[in-house]
Amino acid sequence: MLKISKKEIIFLIIIALATVLITAAPYLYGYLTRPQGSTYTGLHHLTPGDTNVWLSMIEQTKQGHNIFINLYTSEPQHRIYINPLWLAIGLLAKIFNLSSLLALHIARSVLIIIFVFIMYLFLSYFFQQVLKRKILLIIILFSSGLGLFFNPFLFNLENIIEHPTDIWVPESITFLTLFHTPHIIASLTLLILTFLLMLIAFERNKIIYSILAGLTSLLLFWFHPFNVPTIYLVLFVYILVNFILHHKIILSYIKHYLILIAISLPALLYLFWLSKTDWVIRNWSAQNILPSPSFWMYLIGYGLFLPLSLIALIKIFKNPFKKEIFFFVWMITSLFLMYIPLDFQRRLSEGLHVALAILAGLGIFYIIDYLKKLQQKGKKIITYLPTTLVIILIIFLPLTNLQILGQDIYLYNTKKSLPYYLSKEETDSMKWIKTNVLENEIILSSFYTGNYIPAYTGRIVYIGHGPQTINLPIKLEIIDWFFKDNQEDTLKYNFIKENNIDYLYFGEKEKEMGDYSPSQKNYLKKVFKNNEVTIYKVI
Predict the structure, then answer these.
(1) CA triple 59-60-64, angle to 5 deg
(2) What is the pLDDT of residues 329-378, one digit of tens each?
(3) Is 416 part of any domain?
(4) Domain co-membership, 237 together with 260
(5) Residue 441 CA to chain centroid, in angstroms?
């Protein structure tokens, strides 16, 4: 087995805790500087709409549901969806009586620590030199691309995906993954662990490792099936490369690969069954379209990694039988996957940063070794170049990550309302809904407010999230029509009845949408009111 010394364990504990504290800094700032009486939502500028979805699943578990439904759409559905990760976090919140947001961040912190140790084990498999694997770990955890420098010139609200990926795609950079949400951290950890176990299975030809890899894949695919193409194809290509290098078919590799597939396959069959059984889940999946930006955005997002990786690859190709050939396979396969015709292309960038960071680190080592050799030959002009190179990389590699942290702190400091804070009145209205609205009743609100209601109440909304609200474009038009004016009462009443809507939430966001006046409608009865929010029951 892989061995790690006590000194290395102490180093890993320090690095893991430092990573937890650094990634938690904006969240802690947002919470500690919240306006008096308000509730900190925990949202940040990286895909903010998704955070409430995860909180809604935790809230469902706290309310006694171990099987989830989609609270962001009003269509009839069945409780048949089990997500082991969010179920576990929800049980954590329920057992220890934690808020959903606190449970999420405790899970995020614990998973960061686990990831650091698994990542280091993975590096230890390839590199015997302790200093080398420590440096590579730091590069993986804290490095980023050049988005900070290019984004000001490329920023375009009308084309949100055409921005450097290290600015906004959580899967594309390891630091953003660790900063973002538990399920991506868990998926990346299991991805790395699966690769490690399979590589050991190939090397030692012991079935126990491929069985364990199959089990880790089973768990991973169950809650994050986006990783299926990466794991299956990277390992398949790696096997083919070894066949070519050794000029023969290695049957043991095929055996371990088939074991992995056989054990992980039930998770895919379960998800397939879900899509066939429940049309809401099927349509939810169909709407979850995540195209990759242009390759130039990835090129900027990975910045110095690509040229440094090319240097490493030149050295690796001189001896392709070394273990490091796996990183080349991983890199090329992932670059290919990001543009195959699947709806979730962008998700397939997950893990690529790890491969590139390792290759870039090796490229840096090769450059430093080369400069030292020149120095030993008496070339004084490059005496300080190795040290200068290290200083430049220390300064530039994490810069975009620092900008990400700083941006959230700035937003928390300047915007003391939605999306980052719920006012006391909004919080009180959510508490009333949680206590008085039944679980099968549907609430009508603006899209904006609808994103929050399920997270804080565990109740169903008509509209509230991009992929999860079925027929979102149509519903957005309907919501605009409904709140725009105070006319067409018969049509609006028919719409409410036809969609089985039970309550109308009327807060600041709804008032901003138009002139609709629910207090004048004979089909609505006021059941809750404070200075900001009025809730009506449909009669």
Answers:
(1) 115
(2) 999 999 999 999 999 999 999 999 999 999 999 999 998 888 878 777 76
(3) no
(4) yes
(5) 30
Examine the fold and report which residue of 378, 410, 442 is the final residue of a domain before the chain moves on: 410
- The total of structural domains in the chain comes to 2
Cβ atoms of 186 and 177 within 8 Å: the answer is no
Amino acid identity, residue 495?
A: F
CB 170 within 8 A of CB 177: yes
Of 367, 386, 410, the position where a domain reaches its end is: 410
Inter-residue contact 372 to 268 (CB < 8 Å)? no
Whether residue 313 sits in one domain with residue 452: no
Question: Quick check: is 1 in a domain?
Answer: no
Give the phi and the psi of residue 78 in degrees, each rounded to 5. -110, 150
| Closest CA relative to residue 405, chosen from 5, 25, 20 | 25
- What is the C-alpha separation between 116 and 92, in angstroms, rounded? 22
Q: What was the pLDDT predicted at 48?
A: 83
CA pair distance 26, 94, nearest whole angstrom: 26
CA–CA distance, 457 with 533 (Å, rounded to integer): 15
Alpha-carbon gap, residue 51 to 12, rounded angstroms: 29
Whole-number pLDDT of residue 380: 60
In DSSP terms, 443 is beta-bridged to 461, 503
Same domain, 120 and 157: yes
* From 14-28, 129-143, 315-329, 362-376, the region with the lowest mean pLDDT: 362-376
- Does residue 254 form part of some domain? yes
Q: Are residues 340 and 451 in the same domain?
A: no
Instruction: Report helix, strand or coil for 160.
Output: coil
Contact (Cβ atoms closer than 8 angstroms) between residue 428 and residue 455:
no
Q: Supply the range of the domain harboring residue 518.
A: 421-538
Asked if 483 contacts 463 with a C-beta cutoff of 8 angstroms, the reply is no
User: In the structure encoding, which two tokens stand for residue 517, read together?
Assistant: 């006046």
- Tell me the three state secondary structure of residue 372: helix
Same domain, 140 and 239: yes
